[in-house]
Amino acid sequence: MYSAPFPLAATVKALRSEQIGLETYINDICARIEATEPYIEALLPEENRRGRLLNEAVALQKRFPDPARRPALYGALLGVKDLFHIDGFATHAGSKLPPEVFHGPEASCIRKLREAGALILGLTVAAEFAYFEPGTTRNPHNPEHTPGGSSSGSAAAVVAGYCQLALGTQTSGSIVRPAAFCGVIGFKATYGRIATDGLIFCAPTLDTLGYFTQDLAGLQLVAPLLCQGWQPVASLPTKPVLGIPEGPYLALASSEALAVFERQVAVLEKAGYTLRRVPIFQDIDAIHHRHMRLVCAEMARTHADWFGQYELLYRPRTTQAIHEGLAISYPEFDLYRASPGALRTEIETLMESAGIDLWICPSAVGPAPASIATTGDAAMNVPWTHAGLPTISLPVGSAANGLPLGLQCIGRFQCDEYLLAWAPGLAEALGMV
């Protein structure tokens, strides 16, 4: 087991006040990476990472000499999924394509975090083009198991104690599932709430940004920096009404995951939460079909130029998806692009009529599979991602083999503020904090 406690909020508070020395902290983390990374492989290799970070630390100290004026993320180490453009780094998108084809301006989300005092730890390993061909990363809780994907390196780097914050993306389940498998907090914002400039897309109609932390306080610290139009919640009902999505969708989870989930439900009821079991997603197979057809169609169009030139460098599952997408006509493509909005309306109409504030369900069908040749099953994430709704995975519960499980909490479209405001109460009731 290669996990280590590394909460964002407490660490930056100590760095800002100089309770922790910035250079000592960087040296300690780099030593941990050198000792652990051969077993985890969460990061893209970098020569003299330690030297670069120490130089950047000196520059940060000179920029903010007064502890009282240091920004919110002063000295925080940031892992960035290998899909973003970052000044000074070569992005590969988890692929074998020459990195110069991906060159572009630095993503604004990274620029905002830098301005808030974060230091770039490095690029984190990702599945090829954020699809299903896994990278080399292993699960820090058991290296024989997958960390999930496609944001595999970001989740693993946070739980391994390399960084307190890591960026990820989700097209199907690429934040929530790795968060659950690795036992960290994963937040996927409302679709479009975090700017996607500087991102190498998988499927632009679905691709959503988010991030990983070990602590909810850290999660809440970052959201106003990244989410456009963030408004603090002025008045919040103490406990949201929780919906349980009954039917064929929930039945996709394993018996073990469902048993743990039902225990969580019982704990929440005892803590005073109102829970309502509501039938939904009776057509879950059709939702999955539309989702994957949309992914393939958009991958084909996003990769048209690259694939035409470098097809032989693409891995088999990505190649298959692009070929499938090339066969989808534009009239059919238009039907698939209309699907997310229609599903979102269906879900939110049901939430309104049933008086539901948040949905809860397992974050994944079960614990991390015993293989690094797969990223796991995204079935529990697809409908919520398809609809563009904000989602958090809380690391609560564990499987019989000791690997983590997660509770997935889903809010209303553009109501990320409420989802994050309610999360601490849920976590406390479930014994997470």
Automatic annotation (TrEMBL):
One GO term in the molecular function aspect is:
catalytic activity
Q: Which InterPro entries match?
A: Amidase, Amidase_dom, AS_sf
Q: Where is the Amidase domain?
A: 27-420
Write out the coiled-coil annotation as residue ranges. none
**Top-level taxonomic group:** Bacteria
Under Pfam families, the record lists: Amidase (PF01425)
Put simply, this protein is called Amidase
Record the organism. Answer: Ktedonobacter racemifer DSM 44963
